[in-house]
Amino acid sequence: MNTIGHQNIQIKLRQIERQIENIEMKLDKAIEMLENNNKDCKKMSTHIDFVDGVYENIKAPMNYICNSINNSRLIGDKSYDKS
């Protein structure tokens, strides 16, 4: 193989090396984004668990209060109808 052939091969190898380096950089960025996404998902999951816990604690008292208010309104509306 002549000198020009070796130079072409070396040029092509350098191009391939640059492409591999670019791919590795993009892969590193993608991995970093996935790791950050996992952290954010874990935070959101913790928040959702907190909200669910609060809702479970206040669901029954809140329903009682709402039902009491609705029942008193119904009783109040019936007394106006009789007048």
Helix-strand layout with pairing:
Elements: H1 3-82
What Rg is obtained from the alpha carbons, in whole angstroms?
34 Å
What is the terminal separation in angstroms? Answer: 113 Å
Task: Based on Cα principal axes, name the global outline.
Answer: rod-shaped
Number of strands: 0
Q: Helix- and strand-based class?
A: mainly alpha
N-to-C SSE series? H
- Helices, by number, come to 1
The proportion of residues in beta strands is: under 5%
**Biggest β-sheet, characterized?**
none
Average pLDDT metric: 88
Helix percentage range: over 70%
Low-confidence stretches: none
Detailed description of the structure:
By secondary structure, the chain is mainly α. Helices cover 96% and strands 0% of the residues. It contains one helix and no strands. The protein has one helix at residues 3-82. The longest helix has 80 residues, at 3-82. The mean pLDDT is 88.
Features:
83 residues; mainly alpha
What's the gist of this structure?
This protein is mainly α. The chain has one helix at residues 3-82.
